[in-house]
Protein backbone atom coordinates (compact mmCIF):
# COMPACT_ATOMS: atom_id res chain seq x y z
CA UNK A 1 0.00 0.00 0.00
CA UNK A 2 2.74 2.43 0.83
CA UNK A 3 5.13 1.38 -1.90
CA UNK A 4 4.71 3.10 -5.25
CA UNK A 5 7.65 1.44 -6.95
CA UNK A 6 6.51 -2.15 -6.32
CA UNK A 7 3.65 -3.87 -8.07
CA UNK A 8 1.27 -5.30 -5.45
CA UNK A 9 1.66 -9.03 -4.97
CA UNK A 10 -1.93 -9.25 -3.75
CA UNK A 11 -4.56 -6.88 -5.10
CA UNK A 12 -8.19 -6.88 -3.93
CA UNK A 13 -10.61 -4.66 -5.84
CA UNK A 14 -14.21 -3.80 -4.84
CA UNK A 15 -14.72 -7.20 -3.22
CA UNK A 16 -18.30 -8.10 -2.26
CA UNK A 17 -19.15 -11.34 -0.45
CA UNK A 18 -22.84 -11.98 0.24
CA UNK A 19 -24.27 -15.15 1.81
CA UNK A 20 -27.76 -16.50 1.27
CA UNK A 21 -29.45 -17.59 4.52
CA UNK A 22 -32.98 -18.49 5.58
CA UNK A 23 -33.29 -15.02 7.10
CA UNK A 24 -32.02 -13.15 4.04
CA UNK A 25 -28.79 -11.95 2.45
CA UNK A 26 -25.80 -11.37 4.73
CA UNK A 27 -23.55 -8.66 3.25
CA UNK A 28 -20.40 -9.89 4.97
CA UNK A 29 -18.03 -7.86 2.77
CA UNK A 30 -19.42 -4.93 0.85
CA UNK A 31 -16.92 -3.23 -1.44
CA UNK A 32 -13.40 -3.75 -0.11
CA UNK A 33 -10.13 -2.84 -1.86
CA UNK A 34 -6.48 -3.08 -0.80
CA UNK A 35 -2.98 -3.95 -2.06
CA UNK A 36 -0.13 -5.85 -0.44
CA UNK A 37 3.49 -6.05 -1.60
CA UNK A 38 5.92 -8.92 -1.00
CA UNK A 39 7.70 -8.78 2.33
CA UNK A 40 5.05 -6.47 3.80
CA UNK A 41 2.46 -7.07 6.51
CA UNK A 42 -1.07 -5.72 6.26
CA UNK A 43 -2.98 -5.69 9.54
CA UNK A 44 -6.75 -5.96 9.20
CA UNK A 45 -8.44 -4.88 12.39
CA UNK A 46 -12.04 -4.66 13.55
CA UNK A 47 -14.59 -6.12 15.94
CA UNK A 48 -16.07 -9.59 15.48
CA UNK A 49 -18.43 -9.63 12.52
CA UNK A 50 -16.66 -6.85 10.63
CA UNK A 51 -15.78 -9.11 7.68
CA UNK A 52 -12.09 -9.73 8.40
CA UNK A 53 -12.10 -13.52 8.29
CA UNK A 54 -14.62 -13.70 5.46
CA UNK A 55 -12.30 -11.58 3.32
CA UNK A 56 -9.41 -13.94 3.80
CA UNK A 57 -11.40 -17.13 3.38
CA UNK A 58 -12.52 -15.64 0.07
CA UNK A 59 -8.92 -15.05 -0.98
CA UNK A 60 -8.24 -18.74 -0.32
CA UNK A 61 -11.41 -19.81 -2.13
CA UNK A 62 -12.83 -21.59 0.91
CA UNK A 63 -16.48 -20.53 0.57
CA UNK A 64 -19.32 -22.66 -0.75
CA UNK A 65 -19.72 -21.12 -4.19
CA UNK A 66 -23.32 -22.38 -4.45
CA UNK A 67 -24.45 -20.33 -1.46
CA UNK A 68 -22.09 -17.37 -1.78
CA UNK A 69 -22.30 -14.46 -4.20
CA UNK A 70 -18.81 -13.06 -4.77
CA UNK A 71 -18.06 -10.04 -6.94
CA UNK A 72 -14.96 -7.96 -7.56
CA UNK A 73 -11.39 -8.98 -8.28
CA UNK A 74 -8.63 -10.72 -6.33
CA UNK A 75 -5.26 -10.90 -8.10
CA UNK A 76 -2.44 -12.96 -6.59
CA UNK A 77 0.78 -12.30 -8.51
CA UNK A 78 -1.35 -11.66 -11.60
CA UNK A 79 -3.64 -14.69 -11.20
CA UNK A 80 -7.34 -13.89 -10.80
CA UNK A 81 -8.41 -16.08 -7.88
CA UNK A 82 -12.14 -15.47 -8.34
CA UNK A 83 -12.13 -16.94 -11.85
CA UNK A 84 -9.76 -19.81 -11.00
CA UNK A 85 -11.12 -23.35 -10.89
CA UNK A 86 -11.12 -25.40 -7.69
CA UNK A 87 -8.26 -27.47 -9.08
CA UNK A 88 -6.19 -24.34 -9.72
CA UNK A 89 -6.95 -23.06 -6.22
CA UNK A 90 -5.90 -26.38 -4.68
CA UNK A 91 -2.52 -26.02 -6.35
CA UNK A 92 -2.15 -22.52 -4.98
CA UNK A 93 -3.34 -23.27 -1.43
CA UNK A 94 -0.46 -24.44 0.72
CA UNK A 95 1.98 -23.80 -2.11
CA UNK A 96 1.66 -20.13 -3.12
CA UNK A 97 -0.65 -19.05 -0.31
CA UNK A 98 -1.36 -20.50 3.13
CA UNK A 99 -3.34 -19.72 6.25
CA UNK A 100 -2.75 -19.98 9.99
CA UNK A 101 -6.07 -20.45 11.75
CA UNK A 102 -7.02 -19.09 15.15
CA UNK A 103 -7.64 -22.41 16.91
CA UNK A 104 -4.78 -24.80 16.21
CA UNK A 105 -6.34 -27.64 18.21
CA UNK A 106 -9.49 -27.52 16.09
CA UNK A 107 -7.51 -27.12 12.86
CA UNK A 108 -5.12 -30.03 13.40
CA UNK A 109 -6.44 -33.59 13.03
CA UNK A 110 -6.42 -35.44 16.38
CA UNK A 111 -6.06 -38.78 14.56
CA UNK A 112 -2.71 -38.11 12.86
CA UNK A 113 0.67 -37.13 14.20
CA UNK A 114 1.84 -33.57 13.76
CA UNK A 115 4.66 -34.76 11.51
CA UNK A 116 2.29 -36.68 9.25
CA UNK A 117 0.09 -33.64 8.77
CA UNK A 118 3.01 -31.38 7.89
CA UNK A 119 4.71 -33.90 5.61
CA UNK A 120 1.48 -34.66 3.70
CA UNK A 121 1.19 -31.01 2.68
CA UNK A 122 4.76 -31.09 1.41
CA UNK A 123 4.26 -34.38 -0.47
CA UNK A 124 1.06 -33.18 -2.12
CA UNK A 125 2.62 -30.05 -3.56
CA UNK A 126 6.16 -31.25 -4.34
CA UNK A 127 5.82 -34.96 -5.06
CA UNK A 128 8.58 -35.67 -2.54
CA UNK A 129 9.04 -39.15 -1.07
CA UNK A 130 7.85 -40.08 2.42
CA UNK A 131 11.41 -39.95 3.72
CA UNK A 132 12.04 -36.51 2.19
CA UNK A 133 8.71 -35.23 3.49
CA UNK A 134 9.41 -36.45 7.01
CA UNK A 135 12.83 -34.80 6.96
CA UNK A 136 11.17 -31.58 5.78
CA UNK A 137 8.62 -31.78 8.61
CA UNK A 138 11.42 -32.17 11.17
CA UNK A 139 13.28 -29.25 9.61
CA UNK A 140 10.18 -27.01 9.80
CA UNK A 141 9.45 -27.98 13.42
CA UNK A 142 13.02 -27.06 14.29
CA UNK A 143 12.73 -23.79 12.36
CA UNK A 144 9.65 -22.70 14.32
CA UNK A 145 11.39 -23.40 17.62
CA UNK A 146 9.93 -26.73 18.72
CA UNK A 147 12.52 -28.58 20.85
CA UNK A 148 13.53 -32.14 19.99
CA UNK A 149 11.75 -32.11 16.62
CA UNK A 150 13.03 -35.61 15.76
CA UNK A 151 10.90 -36.96 18.63
CA UNK A 152 7.98 -34.55 18.59
CA UNK A 153 7.35 -35.15 14.91
CA UNK A 154 5.71 -38.45 15.92
CA UNK A 155 3.49 -36.94 18.63
CA UNK A 156 -0.19 -36.01 18.33
CA UNK A 157 -1.63 -32.48 18.68
CA UNK A 158 -3.03 -33.17 22.17
CA UNK A 159 0.54 -33.84 23.35
CA UNK A 160 1.56 -30.29 22.40
CA UNK A 161 0.92 -27.18 24.48
CA UNK A 162 -1.19 -24.38 23.01
CA UNK A 163 1.88 -22.42 21.98
CA UNK A 164 3.54 -25.50 20.48
CA UNK A 165 0.40 -26.34 18.50
CA UNK A 166 0.36 -22.85 17.07
CA UNK A 167 4.02 -23.22 16.11
CA UNK A 168 3.17 -26.53 14.43
CA UNK A 169 0.40 -24.77 12.47
CA UNK A 170 2.91 -22.16 11.34
CA UNK A 171 5.31 -24.94 10.30
CA UNK A 172 2.55 -26.55 8.25
CA UNK A 173 1.61 -23.24 6.62
CA UNK A 174 5.23 -22.48 5.69
CA UNK A 175 6.37 -25.97 4.68
CA UNK A 176 6.09 -25.15 0.96
CA UNK A 177 7.50 -21.61 1.32
CA UNK A 178 4.26 -19.77 0.36
CA UNK A 179 4.58 -16.21 -0.86
CA UNK A 180 1.36 -15.13 0.88
CA UNK A 181 0.57 -16.03 4.50
CA UNK A 182 -2.81 -15.24 6.04
CA UNK A 183 -2.83 -15.29 9.84
CA UNK A 184 -6.33 -15.27 11.33
CA UNK A 185 -5.93 -14.11 14.94
CA UNK A 186 -3.21 -16.73 15.54
CA UNK A 187 -2.31 -15.48 19.03
CA UNK A 188 -5.75 -14.84 20.54
CA UNK A 189 -5.89 -17.90 22.81
CA UNK A 190 -2.25 -17.66 23.94
CA UNK A 191 -0.78 -15.97 27.01
CA UNK A 192 1.17 -12.77 26.43
CA UNK A 193 4.60 -14.41 26.67
CA UNK A 194 3.80 -17.08 24.07
CA UNK A 195 2.02 -14.46 21.97
CA UNK A 196 5.18 -12.35 21.85
CA UNK A 197 7.22 -15.42 20.86
CA UNK A 198 4.82 -16.24 18.00
CA UNK A 199 4.92 -12.63 16.76
CA UNK A 200 8.72 -12.63 16.80
CA UNK A 201 8.71 -15.96 14.97
CA UNK A 202 6.45 -14.62 12.20
CA UNK A 203 8.65 -11.54 11.77
CA UNK A 204 11.81 -13.67 11.60
CA UNK A 205 10.29 -16.06 9.08
CA UNK A 206 9.01 -13.16 6.99
CA UNK A 207 12.51 -11.67 6.91
CA UNK A 208 13.91 -15.06 5.89
CA UNK A 209 11.37 -15.91 3.20
CA UNK A 210 10.17 -12.45 2.08
CA UNK A 211 6.58 -13.55 2.67
CA UNK A 212 3.64 -11.16 2.32
CA UNK A 213 1.43 -11.43 5.42
CA UNK A 214 -2.20 -10.52 6.00
CA UNK A 215 -2.65 -10.44 9.78
CA UNK A 216 -6.23 -10.42 11.08
CA UNK A 217 -6.89 -9.26 14.63
CA UNK A 218 -9.17 -7.24 16.86
CA UNK A 219 -6.16 -6.18 18.97
CA UNK A 220 -4.51 -2.89 18.04
CA UNK A 221 -1.61 -3.75 20.34
CA UNK A 222 -0.78 -6.71 18.10
CA UNK A 223 -1.12 -4.48 15.04
CA UNK A 224 1.38 -2.05 16.53
CA UNK A 225 3.87 -4.89 16.89
CA UNK A 226 3.70 -6.56 13.49
CA UNK A 227 1.98 -4.51 10.77
CA UNK A 228 3.43 -2.16 8.17
CA UNK A 229 0.03 -0.95 6.96
CA UNK A 230 -3.37 -1.09 8.63
CA UNK A 231 -6.88 -1.52 7.25
CA UNK A 232 -9.73 -0.90 9.69
CA UNK A 233 -12.98 -2.72 8.89
CA UNK A 234 -16.47 -2.07 10.20
CA UNK A 235 -19.70 -3.66 9.01
CA UNK A 236 -18.07 -5.34 6.02
CA UNK A 237 -16.43 -2.14 4.78
CA UNK A 238 -13.06 -0.42 5.10
CA UNK A 239 -13.44 2.76 7.15
CA UNK A 240 -9.76 3.72 7.39
CA UNK A 241 -6.40 2.72 5.96
CA UNK A 242 -2.83 3.94 6.15
CA UNK A 243 0.55 3.10 7.59
CA UNK A 244 0.70 1.73 11.11
CA UNK A 245 2.12 4.99 12.41
CA UNK A 246 -0.54 7.09 10.67
CA UNK A 247 -3.52 5.05 11.82
CA UNK A 248 -2.40 4.51 15.41
CA UNK A 249 -1.04 8.00 16.09
CA UNK A 250 -3.48 10.15 14.07
CA UNK A 251 -6.73 8.23 13.51
CA UNK A 252 -9.06 9.80 10.96
CA UNK A 253 -12.24 7.80 11.53
CA UNK A 254 -14.41 7.90 14.69
CA UNK A 255 -14.46 4.09 14.80
CA UNK A 256 -10.66 3.88 14.84
CA UNK A 257 -10.60 6.55 17.54
CA UNK A 258 -13.11 4.48 19.50
CA UNK A 259 -10.97 1.36 19.25
CA UNK A 260 -7.91 3.25 20.46
CA UNK A 261 -9.86 4.96 23.27
CA UNK A 262 -11.03 1.59 24.58
CA UNK A 263 -7.46 0.27 24.86
CA UNK A 264 -5.51 0.61 28.11
CA UNK A 265 -2.31 2.62 27.75
CA UNK A 266 1.02 1.49 29.19
CA UNK A 267 2.18 5.10 29.32
CA UNK A 268 0.95 8.01 31.39
CA UNK A 269 -1.47 7.90 34.30
CA UNK A 270 -3.31 4.73 35.29
CA UNK A 271 -6.29 6.96 36.14
CA UNK A 272 -7.10 7.67 32.48
CA UNK A 273 -10.57 6.13 31.96
CA UNK A 274 -11.26 3.76 29.10
CA UNK A 275 -14.00 4.85 26.72
CA UNK A 276 -15.63 1.81 25.16
CA UNK A 277 -17.64 2.25 21.98
CA UNK A 278 -21.35 2.26 22.92
CA UNK A 279 -23.74 -0.20 21.35
CA UNK A 280 -23.00 -3.31 19.31
CA UNK A 281 -21.68 -4.03 15.81
CA UNK A 282 -24.40 -3.91 13.14
CA UNK A 283 -26.34 -6.86 11.82
CA UNK A 284 -25.10 -7.60 8.32
CA UNK A 285 -28.53 -9.04 7.49
CA UNK A 286 -30.06 -5.61 7.93
CA UNK A 287 -27.20 -3.10 8.21
CA UNK A 288 -27.83 0.58 8.94
CA UNK A 289 -28.26 2.86 5.95
CA UNK A 290 -25.64 5.45 5.13
CA UNK A 291 -22.51 5.09 7.23
CA UNK A 292 -22.80 1.80 9.07
CA UNK A 293 -21.10 3.25 12.12
CA UNK A 294 -23.46 6.22 12.51
CA UNK A 295 -25.74 4.66 15.21
CA UNK A 296 -22.70 4.36 17.51
CA UNK A 297 -20.82 7.49 16.41
CA UNK A 298 -20.41 10.42 18.80
CA UNK A 299 -19.83 12.80 15.90
CA UNK A 300 -22.76 11.92 13.60
CA UNK A 301 -24.88 14.74 15.01
CA UNK A 302 -22.24 17.25 13.92
CA UNK A 303 -22.86 16.43 10.25
CA UNK A 304 -25.72 18.50 8.79
CA UNK A 305 -28.88 17.16 7.13
CA UNK A 306 -28.58 13.70 8.69
CA UNK A 307 -26.17 12.73 5.95
CA UNK A 308 -24.53 10.00 8.04
CA UNK A 309 -27.77 8.02 8.17
CA UNK A 310 -28.69 8.38 4.50
CA UNK A 311 -25.56 8.36 2.34
CA UNK A 312 -22.58 6.01 2.31
CA UNK A 313 -19.36 8.03 2.79
CA UNK A 314 -16.70 7.58 0.15
CA UNK A 315 -13.31 6.15 1.07
CA UNK A 316 -11.01 8.89 -0.19
CA UNK A 317 -7.45 7.52 -0.43
CA UNK A 318 -4.40 9.63 -1.21
CA UNK A 319 -0.94 7.99 -1.17
CA UNK A 320 -2.35 4.98 0.67
CA UNK A 321 -3.98 7.10 3.40
CA UNK A 322 -7.72 7.55 3.66
CA UNK A 323 -10.92 7.27 5.67
CA UNK A 324 -14.65 7.09 4.99
CA UNK A 325 -16.41 9.80 6.99
CA UNK A 326 -18.82 12.63 6.09
CA UNK A 327 -17.32 14.98 8.66
CA UNK A 328 -14.67 17.14 6.94
CA UNK A 329 -11.16 16.00 7.80
CA UNK A 330 -10.20 19.37 9.29
CA UNK A 331 -13.11 19.13 11.74
CA UNK A 332 -12.26 15.54 12.62
CA UNK A 333 -8.67 16.56 13.33
CA UNK A 334 -9.98 19.32 15.58
CA UNK A 335 -12.27 16.96 17.50
CA UNK A 336 -9.58 14.27 17.74
CA UNK A 337 -6.77 16.71 18.62
CA UNK A 338 -6.79 16.11 22.34
CA UNK A 339 -6.79 12.33 21.94
CA UNK A 340 -3.00 11.78 21.92
CA UNK A 341 -2.44 14.09 24.87
CA UNK A 342 -5.23 12.58 26.95
CA UNK A 343 -3.66 9.15 26.67
CA UNK A 344 -0.50 10.31 28.44
CA UNK A 345 -1.93 12.37 31.29
TrEMBL record:
Tree of life domain: Bacteria
Pfam families registered for this protein in UniProt: ABC_tran (PF00005), oligo_HPY (PF08352)
Family statement drawn from the similarity comment of this UniProt entry: Belongs to the ABC transporter superfamily.
GO MF annotation: an example: ATP hydrolysis activity
Domain ABC transporter, chain residue ranges per copy: 12-260
Name of the protein in question: ABC transporter ATP-binding protein
PROSITE patterns, sorted: ABC_TRANSPORTER_1, ABC_TRANSPORTER_2
Protein source organism: Streptomyces griseoviridis
Amino acid sequence: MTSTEQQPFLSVRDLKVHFSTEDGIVKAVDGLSFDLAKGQTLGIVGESGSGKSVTNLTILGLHDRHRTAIDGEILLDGTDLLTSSERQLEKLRGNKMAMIFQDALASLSPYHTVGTQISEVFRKHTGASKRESRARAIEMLRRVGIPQPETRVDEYPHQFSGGMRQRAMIAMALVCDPELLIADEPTTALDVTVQAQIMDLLKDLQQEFGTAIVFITHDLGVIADIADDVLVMYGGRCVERGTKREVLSTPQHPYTLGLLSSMPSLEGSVDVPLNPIPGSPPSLLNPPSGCRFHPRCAFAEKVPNGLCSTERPALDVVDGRGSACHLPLAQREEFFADFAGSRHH
